[in-house]
Amino acid sequence: KQEVTQIPAALSVPEGENLVLNCSFTDSAIYNLQWFRQDPGKGLTSLLLIQSSQREQTSGRLNASLDKSSGRSTLYIAASQPGDSATYLCAVRGQGAQKLVFGQGTRLTINP
Amino acid sequence: NAGVTQTPKFRVLKTGQSMTLLCAQDMNHEYMYWYRQDPGMGLRLIHYSVGEGTTAKGEVPDGYNVSRLKKQNFLLGLESAAPSQTSVYFCASSYSFSKADTQYFGPGTRLTVL
Predict the structure, then answer these.
(1) Over the Cα atoms of chain B, what is R_g?
(2) What residue in A sits closest to B41 (Cα-Cα)?
C-alpha cells in the first residue's frame, strides 16, 4: 500500500529565504507526482506535476524534483514571499491506479 | 469559466438525516472525483467517475452514494448521516487519466454531523 509522508508538518521562515519541502513515498512504481497548494478554507491548486519519466519541473520560483529510486520528491521555493504562506500537499498516483495518495501536508508560514 | 464549483459551502446535519452535495464542472472533463479531508488523515478518495453514467468506489466509499447523470455534474449522497462523516468534502475533475493530466479541485463543502 502506497504511503506518502511530508516532513516537516509545519515550517516558518523569514521572507526572502529559499526553502525546501520534502515528500517521500513507499512504492516507487508511480505514474506521476504532484504538488498542490491549499489556502485556509479553500480548495487545492495544482502547482507542478512530474511524470514518472521526468526528473524535475519548474514554474516561476518553484522547482520540484523527483527521485523514484529513493522514493523522494522536493519542492524548492526561491525568494519566499508572505503570499507563499499556505499548506503544500504532495500526492502520488500509482501505476494503473485511478486515485491520488496524498501526504498530510506541510503548513508553510513566511514572516514579513 | 468557473472551473469546479460545489454546493453548498457549509452544512450542519443531525445524525440520521440525509443530504446531497453537488459538484459541477464546466471544463468538459470526463473524470470526476469525491474526496474527504480529515485532520491527520489527509485527503482520501470516496468515489469517482470515468464518464457520464459511470461510478466506481474509492478508498472510503461506505456510507456514501454517487451519481453522474450528466457529464458536468457529480452528486455525493449521504443517506443516513453519522458523526464520523463530519469532514470537508472536495470534488475534483480531470480531462483524462493520462500521466500528464492534473486534477482540478473545487472549494470544498464543510459538513458537520451532530
Answers:
(1) 13
(2) A104
